Fold each of these.
Amino acid sequence: MTLRCKTRSSAARHFLGGVSVSLLGGLSGLAPLPVAAQPEVSGSGTVALDELSVAGTGLGVERANGPVVGYRATRSGTGTRTDTALRDAPQSVQVMPREVLVDQQDIRLADALTNVSNVQAAGTLQGRTETYNIRGFNTQTGAVDGVLLNQSSNFFTTTRDLADVERVEVLKGPASVLFGRGDPGGLINIVTRQPTLIPSGDATLQGGSFGFRRVQGSVSSAIPSIDGLAGRLSFAAQTDPTFRNYGGRDNSRFFVAPAFTYVPTPDTRISFLGEFTRQDSQYDEGLIARNGRVPLDNLSRYYGEPFARYNATSNFTTLRIEHDVNANITLRQVLNVQWGAFDQFVVRATGVNAAGTLVQRRDTATDSTYAAVDSQSEIVAKFGLFGVQHTALLGYEYTNGYRHSYTTQGLIGSVSFLNPMFGAIPGALSLQGDLKQKNELHGVYLQDQIDLGLGLQLVVGARFDFGTQFYFNRLPASRTIPPEQDLFGATPRIGLIYRPIEPLTLYASYANSFKPQTANILGAVNPAPETGVQYEVGARLDLIPEKLTLSGAAFSITRANVAASDPANTGFSVVTGEQRADGVETDLAGEILPGWKMIASAGYLDARITKDTTFTVGNRLVGVPSFSGSLWSTYQVQGGEFRGWGFGGGVVLVGRRTGDLNNSYTVAGYARFDATVFYDIDARYRFAVNLRNLTNARYIEQPYNQFNNAPGAPLSILASITARM
C-alpha cells in the first residue's frame, strides 16, 4: 500500500497564518526569565542547567547531547558513542551548534553544512531531498541521535527540518566501526533538543523573498504529577514558492517532533523521540548542461510540467533506556522504528537534440514504501588495568529494513531548450522496474579508549557485520527471483592521540567503511557492497583557551565498488571500480572577544577515479571542488545605548566542479556573500534580517548530472521575529 500525502497551497497558507497568530499571542503573556538558561534532567536525577545565559557565559559542564555555549563545542558522542571531549577523538568531528543555525537563520541542512570544511551540497534528487559530498564522496543518508536512517533506502524521502535540532555534527571519514553500514567520506549526525523540567519555549515567524513563509517553535516543561518526567514538542510548517518557475505551484513541508525524558531513579534515564514529516514539493531537475556548460541566463527556467509533483512522508521514533549499574558501568538499550513512503508523477529530461534546441522528455510514476527496525544494546565500562585507565564500549546491533519501489514510465512531448512551455499531454505508462530490497544485519562492535599517560591516548575498535541482503529489480522481461545474498563486513579503527602541551592535540588514525548497495543498479542481482579505507593525521589547537579552537587534518580515502549514475541516462546506476580522495582541511570556531564570534573553514580535495571499466581513469568526481571555504562572523554590542544590537556576515567559496563522471561538462566556482542584522529587544524577543547572495551572483549550487543542476538562489531577504520564554 502506498501512502499519499497531497497538500494544497491554500491549506498551507491557512495553517501558517493561524498557527503564527496563536503562537505569538500565547507567548506574549509569558514573563521573561532573568537568565536564558533552562534546566534539564541530568544523569543523577537532579536538575542541570543548560550552558546559556544573557551574558553568554557557561553554567555547568557541556554534555555531548546538550546545548553549546556560542559557536565552539567541546564535547561530542558521534565519534566514540561516549561523552568524549572533541580533542580526544582520533578523527575530525565538526559541530554546528544551534546558535549558528539561529544567527544564520538556516532553513536547510545544506545551509548549516556550508560552515564545515570539505562538505558540499551534492544534489536535491530533483527537489525531493538532500545529498552531500563529504571529503569528496557522496552520501544520501545520515543519523539522528546516533541511529542511522533506513539502510535499505538509497535516499531519505523528505528534506530534513531543523526545528528540533540542537546541533549538527559531521564525523569525517569512515564511521563503520561504530555505526556499521556507511559511506567512507563521513557521517552527518543530527543531535536533537532535549526536554527541560522548567518551562521553556520559543516560536519564530519567518518571511522572505519569493513568497517564503515559515513558522517554527519548541516548547518544553515538566509533566505534572509525575516526578522526573519532562516533555518537549517541536514543530514547523512552511510554504516555499521559490524563484523557480513551476507554473504557480508551491513547495510545502509540515514537521512535528514530540520528545520525553523520564528519570524514575537517580541511576536510570528513559527518553523517547518522535519525528514526523510530510512534504509536498515540485519535482525539479534544475538546469540542463549543453556544450560543456550550464547556461545561467535564466535561473528560473523549468523543463518539467506543473503536474510534476512529489509527495512523501517520513516517520522516525526512538526509545532509549540507560541505567548506571555503578559509577563505572552503564547499560544502554536503544530501539528505533522508521517507516515512510513517497509517490510521484513527474517529467524527466532524457536528452538534447543535435542542434541543441529541444529537450526530449519522459513521464514517470513511482510508488515507494520503506520500513526499518534498529536495536542497539551497549555497555560502557570505565576501569583501570595494569595502571592504565580504560573506557570500553561493547555493543550489539540488529537492523532489519526493506523498501519496495514500483516505477512506470512513458513518453511526453519535447520542449524548447531556451523557452520551455507548459501544456504537454502525459503519455501512456509501462513498467520500468519493480525493485524489492531487504537487509537484515547483525553487528558486534568493541571500542577501547585507553589513557596511556604522559599525554598519550590510544583508541582501538573493530566491528563485524553479518547478515543477508535480498535485492531484486524486475525489469519488464525479467521473472527470475534471485536468492538472498550473504553479507559480511569487518571494519577496524585505530587512533593515537598525543597532547604535548595543554592547548595542542595531535592525532593519527586508520579506519574502514562497509555499506550494502542500495542504488537502482542496472541488471544487477545482489551486487557487492561498497568498502572504504582512510588514513588521517590531524591537530587541534586552542588559540584562545576555552574560547577559540583551530583544527586541521590531512587524509587519504579509497572507495571500492561504487554505484554511480548510468552515463546512458537509463534511470539506473552502474557499479564502477575504485575512487580516491586526498585532501587537507582546517576549521575554526569560537569567540575572539566578548560578543565577537566566528566560524570558518577551508579545504582542498583531489578526488578522482582510480580504477574503472565504464569511466575514464583520472576523471574528477562529481560536484567536488578542488578548493572550498567559508567564513561567518557576528558581533553583538555588550553595553551602552546600542546593547542588544548585532550584525554579521560571511562568504561561502566553492571552486569549479565537474557535473558527471565523464567530465563532459563543468560548472564554474562562485563566491556568495551573506549578511545579517539583529536586535534583542529584551530577554523575550529578537528581530533579525538576513540577506543572502548580496551580489546577486548566478551560479550552480548543486551539480548532479547533465539534466540535474540546481541553481543557487538570487539575492534573497529573510526577516524573522522570535519570541522566547
Note: The radius of gyration is 25 Å.
Amino acid sequence: MKIFQSAIVVISILIAINQSIAESEQSKISLDSITVTANKQEENIQDVPMSITAFDELILDDKNISSISELTDYVPNLVINAQGVSGSARPVMRGMSAELGTKSVSTAMFIDGIPVLTFAGYEDTLQNIERVEVLRGPQGTLYGKSAEVGVINIITRQPDNTYRGKISVDGGEDYKKEIAFSLSGPIAQDKLFFGLSGQYYDKEGFIRNGYTGDEANDEAHWYGKGQLKWTPIDDLDISLIFSQLEYDNDGNTMGLSKNGAAALGLTASGDREVYSDLDTKEESYTNSQALKVSYDFNDTLNVTSITSHRFSKTEFDIDYDFNPVALWPASNNNEYDKIAQELRLSSNTEKMSWVAGIYYDKDEDTTDVTMASMTRNRELGGEAYALFGQLRYALTPKLGVTGGLRYEIQDKDMQDYTSGNSFDDTWDDFAPKFSVDYAITGQVMGYATVAKGFRSGGFNAMSTDSEYDSYDSEELWSYEIGFKSQLFENRLIVNSALFYMDIDDMQVTETIDPWTYITNAATAVSYGAELEIQVKITSQFTMTANVGYTNIKFDEYQDDSGDYSDNKAPNVPEYTFAIGGQYRTGNGLYIGVDLIGVGKTYLERTNTYERDAYQLINAKIGYEAENWDVYLYGKNIFDEDYSSEGETYMTYSDPRELGVKLTYRF
C-alpha cells in the first residue's frame, strides 16, 4: 500500500506541473507511430489485428530495459522466469509455459531472424536495438513450432550513410559496473555499411553464503555484436550479423525452503542466504551468425532469405542441497547447436497482402550431467521442415479477412548413453489461422481471430517402460477478439483483447510411482484479458498503463501422487499491471516513474505453495542535452521482497538497485 500511495503522489506531481502548459499547444501533439514486422511485412502497429506490445529505442532507454527478462514488467500477461543458470529463462505467456524437461519454450524468440526455441540462451541482452515486438496469441502459422502462444521479435538497428556512436557508463549498488557502446556508419557511401556494439557488466551478489562468508551469486557478462550491410544495387540488401554473449557467474538465486531443509534434516537457508561448501560457478557463452538477403522485384513483391546458426555452451557446478553436506552436488555440461534456413516471398498492395515460404532447421543437443554418484550423458538431434503461407484480403475498404496455414514435420532422435535407450520419432502438425478485421471508424478497428498453437513431442531419456519412451505434441485452439483505437488526433491509444484457449494433450510432469516422466496427462482452459493505454497529455508529459488477467485451470490432470483437476497452473500470476508517466521538457529535464504489479502466483501443481501479490516502483530522473544525458535511477526503490518459497526451494527476488548512468552520443 505504501508503494502504491508513493507512486500516486509522484505521478500527481507530474500532472500538476503539466497543467501549466498552454492550451494552444494541445492540438499540435500526438503519439509517435511504430512500424512492426509481426506479419513479416512492415505495418503500422495499430493496423495489425493482433495483440502486440512494441518497444523502440527510446522506450527501452527510458525504462532501463537492457535484457529480455526486464521486458516482463511492461508486457501484460508475460512472465520470464530465470532458471538459475546463466542465460537460461522460461517464458510464460497467457498462462502457458514449457516443462523444463522438454527443454523447449512456448513463446519463441527471434533475434534478427535467428530462432531461439529453447530456454537455454533465452536470456539475451538488448544493445543497439531498433525495436522489440511482443506478439501475444498463437503465431505458429508464420513462426512455427515453439510459437505456441506468442513470439518475441528483436530487431537490431540498421547502419546507414550517417556515422553514429554512443557510449554509456552505469554504476550502482552492490558495486555494479556497466559500460556499453555502439558505432555505425558507411564504409562506402550508399553501398557498404558497418555496425558494432558491445557491453561489459559486473555486479557483486546479493545472496550471502553463510558457510564461507562470501557472496554466492556474483555476476559478470560480456557481449559483442557486429553487422555488415551491402547494397550493391538499389533493390538488393545483404546483411551479415554476428554476436557473442559470455557469462561468468557464481551460484544462483535459490536456497532451501524451510520444508525442504526439514525433510533433509538440515538447516534452512536464511534471508537471501545459503550454506554451501561447494564453490559454485556458472559459465556459458552463445554465439550466433545470420545472413539476410532481401530483394525487391518491384514496389509490391519481395523475396527474403535468412540463413542462421546459433551455438550455446553451458557449464555449471551447483550444490542442490545448499548446505555444507555433500548430498546433491551437481556438474552440468550442455551444448546446443542449431542451423536454420527460411526463404519467403511476400507482396503488399492496397487490397491484398500475402507471405509464403519454406523453413528448415537442424538441432544437436548434448548433455553431460553428474549429480552425487549419478551420471547422465545423452545426445538429442532433430530436423524440422515446414511450408507456410498467410494472406489478407480487403473485402471492402473497412472489412478485411486473413487466412493462413503452416504444415510442419519434425524428426527427432535421441541416444542416452547412461541408460542405453535409443529413440526416434516423427511429429507433424498443421497450424491454421483465420482472422476478420473491421474498421468501425477511421480511428477504431475491431478484430476476431481463431488460431491453433502447438509444440512438438519429445523423449523421456531415463524411461524404464516403453509406454513412456516419448510424449506427443501439445496443441491448443485460441479464440480472441480485440479492439485498437487512436483517438483525439492520435493523442490517446487504447488497445484491448479478450482470449480463450482450449488446451489438449498438455505436456506435464506425471508421477508413475516411483518414476517421473513428461507425458500428455492434462487438459486445461486458459482465458483472460489485456488492456494497454498510451496518452499524450501534453507535448512534455506521456502516461502509459497496461493490465493483463489470466485464469488457467487444469480440466483433467492426475497421477500416482494426486489429482490436480480444477487446480491453477503453476507459475502464472493472476494479473500483471504497469502504470507509468514520463515527463520530458524542452530544457532537458526528464522524470519517469513506473508502478509495477504482479498478482498471486501458485508455485506448483498441488496449489499448496504460493507467492503473494506484490508491487514495485521504478524511477528515473535526469538531464538530457544534445549529445549527452545523465540520470539517477532506481529499480524496486522500496526494496520489496517478493521471494518465492516452494516445497523444497526458495527463489530469492532481486533487491533494490540505485544507480547513476551517463550517456554520450557522437
Note: Helices lie at 2-18, 57-62, 140-143, 258-264.
